[in-house]
Amino acid sequence: MRAADRLVTETVRRGGPWLAVLAVTSVLGAFAQLALPLVLGRTVDELVADGTGAATWLGACAGVVILTVACDTLGVWASGSSGARSSAWLRERVVRGVLGIGPTITRRFPEGDLVTRMGLNTEEIGHAPESLVTGAALVIPTAGGIVALTLIDPPLTATLVVGLVLIALVLRAFLTVSTAIAGDYQAAQGDIAARLVDALAGARTIAAAGTADRERARVLTALPLLRRHAMAMWRANARAGVQAGAVVPLLEVAVLGVGGLRLAAGDLTAGELYAAARYVVLGAGLGSALGYIGRLARARAAAARVDELVAESPRAYGTRPLPPGPGRLELRGVDAGGLREVDLVIPGGQAVAVVGRSGAGKSLLAAVAGRLVDPRHGTVHLDGVPLPELSREALRRAVGYAFERPVLLGDTVAAAIALGVDTSARTPGTGRRGRRRTGEGQAERPGANREVVRAAARAARADTFVRRLPLGYDTPLQEAPMSGGERQRLGLARAFAQGRRLLILDDATSSLDTVTERQVARTLSGELRDRTRLIVTHRVATAAAADRVIWLDDGRVRACGSHRALWADPAYRAVFQAGAS
Ligand SMILES: Nc1ncnc2c1ncn2[C@@H]1O[C@H](COP(=O)(O)OP(=O)(O)OP(=O)(O)O)[C@@H](O)[C@H]1O
């Protein structure tokens, strides 16, 4: 729990100035509470005596009550604001961290579980500032109670201290137990979210199979567990509440008994006895920290889950730029999960097809070639530079990826294509470069961006259907329902617009009709021929059109050569005849 506690502390510190306001109001409120019995006691004594000073003390009572209410009100505001700031800081950090790790994060954490950790759990940690500061402020009346009782009558203090030790033990045990229960509860929540996200991703399949009921049961598998944890939390709460609550009346009885005897003996005044009874209740008020401790327990449990994300090392980038070169790719002794001992040299400017049966490691090779995945062993060089030594910017500009099922990101169609585009990029096939606006020096020339986007869309044969959309390139993505092939073409356009030296197409033309695929193939071997092209494919025509073919089998390079030469091997032909399955 130590790492989780560190994360909670760090998050609390990010509450900003509102945290200070919360601390001040909590401390002032606590002192006001502490002062109330004193002023009430003095008022009683004045009234019992001649009553001449009673008005002054009544005024003091009113002042203390007003201060208490003001502190409470401002405290609520400050706790909300500091909590919101803390959560916002943590969310920013976690989202940045998770996105910085790259695609491997979803191999460790299911997507729904990730969303729960980044959403619900970070919000729970956001309650920590209030729980910690307000809870800690409860120590003030307790300490004040001890001091005041000591001043009134030292023997009464011993009674209070014994009661406080009992309450502290109850609270400590409650924190430990409820942190564990809250962790189990949150894990069950994550499980439900993970299954739900899977179900939503497969909504079409579920509808087609008519298995919605079965799916509902599968998504809610953890529901009984969730209930059990919730009940356990309530039981722990009730147990601790009863234990801490029982101490207070017992203490009161003990103090009133002892105090009564001392009043009879003339060692205490009636006002002092009244004040002593109030201070005991105030001192034992530590028991009301239960609510704060419950919230703190949930924050700690949530922090343990969020810390697992924060502890994942983000992908490290180097600082080197990419020197001029043709886009030569070299893999040496690469081992990565499903890939073993891969040694390859792909000369710059070649179109290389990657073929093999399903599961042979083609996508993994594509991922390693552009550093979506780092190999466990071995190195990948682009124009002589190991990929991890390249700066993020250099890598992003050099490598463009297109996938079989591209996810389009951005507000509009143009933005989806321009994702990650540097407008100094050369427009595909034109040799022209987009220009930056001079003068201010920061803003890109919008026209340049548009030029790159259009050229890339033309190269991917997407321009015609995009122009037919209601607002053309400015059509919001949500208002542009697209077929699988159209999405693939936008995915291709995005890759063409971005990757200046290496294009990696992972089954990225599989949904295109034959005519469009042929047109894209012509672009690849025509205006894009100056870039190295790594094309994962199941289609024989694509392999035949490539300069050479890498044939993968069970994670290893089985052969590498021209399609024509490889075709002589019946096992190679079988890769296509069997549909690579
Ligand atoms: N990031 C990764 N890290 C480790 N192993 C991986 C990774 N991605 C995939 N694998 C494993 O590598 C093997 C090959 O998967 P890959 O997706 O590369 O096959 P493929 O040849 O592209 O198959 P298909 O033609 O069906 O798409 C699989 O066993 C998979 O579990």
Spell out the key features of this protein.
581 residues, alpha/beta, ABC transporter transmembrane region fold, six-stranded mixed β-sheet, 23 helices, 10 strands, 62% helix, 10% strand, nucleotide-binding, ATP binding
Quick summary:
Residues 437-449 have a biased composition (Basic and acidic residues). The protein has helices at residues 2-13, 17-48, 54-101, 105-108, 111-125, 128-137, 139-152, 154-201, 203-209, 212-219, 223-264, 270-283, 290-310, 362-369, 392-398, 413-418, 446-459, 463-467, 484-498, 514-525, 540-545, 563-566, 570-577; strands at residues 329-336, 339-346, 351-356, 377-382, 385-386, 399-402, 502-506, 532-536, 548-553, 556-561.
The rounded distance between the terminal residues' Cα atoms is 47 Å
The molecules bound to the chains, other than polymers, are:
adenosine-5'-triphosphate
Give the strand tally: 10
The count of helical stretches stands at: 23
- Structurally, the number of domains stands at 2
Transmembrane segments: 16-36, 56-77, 132-152, 158-175, 240-261, 273-293
Region (Disordered): 424-449
Organism: Streptosporangium amethystogenes subsp. fukuiense
Protein name: ABC transporter ATP-binding protein
Description:
With 581 residues, the chain is of the alpha/beta class. Helices cover 62% and strands 10% of the residues. It is built from 23 helices and 10 strands. The site of adenosine-5'-triphosphate has 14 residues, from helix 14. GO terms for molecular function: ATP binding. This is ABC transporter ATP-binding protein. InterPro entries: AAA+_ATPase, ABC1_TM_dom, ABC1_TM_sf, ABC_transporter-like_ATP-bd, ABC_transporter-like_CS, P-loop_NTPase, Type_1_exporter.
